[in-house]
Amino acid sequence: MKRNRLLSGTAFWLLLALIQASGQESLSARIDAIVEAPVKAGRVAGASVAVVKGNETIVLNGYGFADLELDVPTPPRVTYEIGSITKQFTAAAILLLAEQGKLSLADEMTKFLPDYPIQGNHVTIRHLLNHTSGIKGYTELPEFRAFQMFKKPREELVKLFSARPFDFKPGDEQIYNNSAFFLAGLVIEKASGKTYAEFVQEQLFDKVGMGDSYYCSEREIHRNHAHGYDTNRNVLVLKAYVDHSWPYAAGSLCSSAPDLVAWNKALHGGRVLRPESYRLMTSPALLNDGTAIRYGMGVSLAETDGRRTISHSGGINGFLSESEYYPDDDLVIVVLLNTAGPDSPRDLARQIAEVVLGKAPDRSRPFEGDLTQFAGDFTGKGRGLPTTVHIGVSGNQITFTNTETPRATANTLKYFGNDTFGFKDTVVQFKRENAKISSLHLDTGYGHNILLQQK
């Protein structure tokens, strides 16, 4: 009798294990299909994806090719240029230096860079890390296209953007800003006495165990490094040249999918920063008027389909990347592509999240009232150029069109209450003056701008 019960119990656990394995296989197969689709269609050369929930690795795979010319399949620990995912390492480095007493987030930038022409403004290190400095972004300057091809002293790039007028008073708005993170890298070097690459390697990569990660180079040879591809008229071509003197602390780190999982686990598991430093990094920054923006320090805090995320995208010649952490589910999703083209790793990550977590609840509600009060054109500052959006209303549908975007399309807005609408990661909050709509706050998760209604 006891033997039969033992066999019965063993059979139950074996059956449970088989069911769980089948579910796991189903999840991984669905994720594989999502990533393989753009690869098979020829829009993406290769990809690496990691999906880890808690201690369970759901997917850790390479897809397509790391080298198209030699038909080299994507190896397990291939490295990519991760572009602006670099920014969270830069922010963490600054916070580590603050913990060591070598700087304060409230320090004026000029404490470390005394020759910078601040034009009567007060720019703190905190402003640099949340894109609210107002300093002109160098990647938006037409002159930078030719400049980036050559090796020059770093001071030459600083001269290129520092002479330009500020976009706004520090803290008034938020415009995504590579100049600020370039300057943050210089601050790290001044405060630590080490090069940026040395400090990040020793204080972050080595301590977390990120053995695949390093400061990128356009000349050095690194084993298992993917070749990058751009897209020209829907055809993949070799990536355009970029000298890695210039992306620097804003975008010059290389890493792998397993390493970025290790980073997310360490950062969000309390093994990189003290609790207060982590809270500062992952809390919404505040504008001068008290408005909370959806960006912390080097990380975006925009919800993804109604779910909390701490994330960042990256884009650089030949490579696109996405690193996401879902704190309520302890889920890490990393998507790395060796192709700069029409397929977005953020969109792929969003599809993967829905496979793993299910469809997110729709938090929108019907709008009770006259939508036409919101209609019109709104103009204000933007990244590199002014931004004008058109709010259209037709019946019970309200749409958002960024007229400055090439081939702009109308996006249907959902209502979330308090004169606030949104689509995907974008939030549009209308403001009133004398009860009438006078402006809107446009928050993309990477920028927060105030656009005035045009009469």
Describe this structure as you would to a colleague.
With 455 residues, the protein is an alpha+beta fold. The chain has two domains: 81-357, DD-peptidase/beta-lactamase superfamily (Beta-lactamase, 3-Layer(aba) Sandwich); 371-453, Lipocalin, CATH 2.40.128. Helix content is 30%, strand content 25%. The protein has eleven helices and 21 strands. The protein has helices at 2-40, 86-99, 125-129, 144-147, 154-162, 178-192, 196-208, 248-251, 257-268, 275-281, 345-357, and strands spanning 46-53, 56-67, 72-73, 79-81, 214-215, 229-232, 235-238, 253-256, 310-316, 319-326, 331-337, 339-340, 376-380, 387-394, 397-402, 411-412, 414-417, 420-423, 426-433, 436-443, 448-453. The strands form four sheets. Strands 16-15-14-13-21-20-19-18-17 form a nine-stranded antiparallel sheet, with no helix packed on it. The chain is globular, with a radius of gyration of 23 Å.
Question: What is the structure about, briefly put?
Answer:
Helix content is 30%, strand content 25%. With 455 residues, the protein is α+β, with helices and mostly antiparallel strands.
The CATH architecture assignment of the largest domain turns out to be 3-Layer(aba) Sandwich
How many DSSP-defined strands? 21
Q: Considering DSSP H and I runs of 4 or more, what fraction of the residues is helical?
A: 25-40%
Q: Characterize the biggest β-sheet.
A: 9 strands, antiparallel
Taking all Cα atoms into account, the compactness measure Rg is: 23 Å
Specify the CATH homologous superfamily of the largest domain.
Answer: DD-peptidase/beta-lactamase superfamily
Rounded average pLDDT: 93
What strand order characterises the main sheet?
16-15-14-13-21-20-19-18-17
Structural class: alpha+beta
Task: Return residue spans where pLDDT drops below 50 for at least 5 consecutive residues.
Answer: none
Distance between the termini: 87 Å
Individual helix count: 11
Would you give the CATH topology of the largest domain? Beta-lactamase
The CATH class of the largest domain is: Alpha Beta
Strand content is 25-35%
The best one-word shape is: globular
**Tally of distinct domains:** 2
